[in-house]
Design a protein that fits this description.
It is built from 3 helices and 3 strands, in the order αααβββ. With about 90 residues, it is mainly alpha-helical. The protein has one domain. It has a 3-stranded antiparallel beta sheet, with no helix packed on it. The relative contact order is 0.13.
Length: about 90
């Protein structure tokens, strides 16, 4: 799994949208689990890189992700297909 994330990190950045966020949930869980291990899988530099990326995307979700209606996150504001409550 670590290799998969390393390869994705070396690719050009993807566009930010609600659908491209799924891998962030996985990496955040891996980092959390790794911190509980006596011997870490991720080195400090890699962990900091991922944490920075997670923080950037979290900021984007909270401040810049288009809302399709009041307090709802959505995939496409033109179609009104919101599906996650932001509250």
């Amino acid at each position: 799994m670590q290799d998969w994330y390393a390869r994705r990190r070396s690719e050009p950045a993807t566009s930010k949208n609600i659908n491209t966020m799924s891998v962030l949930y996985s990496i955040s869980n891996l980092i959390e689990l790794d911190e509980k291990r006596p011997i870490n899988v991720f080195n400090t530099e890699t962990r900091q890189t991922y944490l920075k990326m997670l923080e950037e995307w979290a900021e984007w979700v909270m401040n810049d992700l288009p809302r399709v209606c009041i307090d709802t996150l959505g995939t496409d504001s033109r179609h009104g297909d919101g599906w996650i409550s932001a509250q």
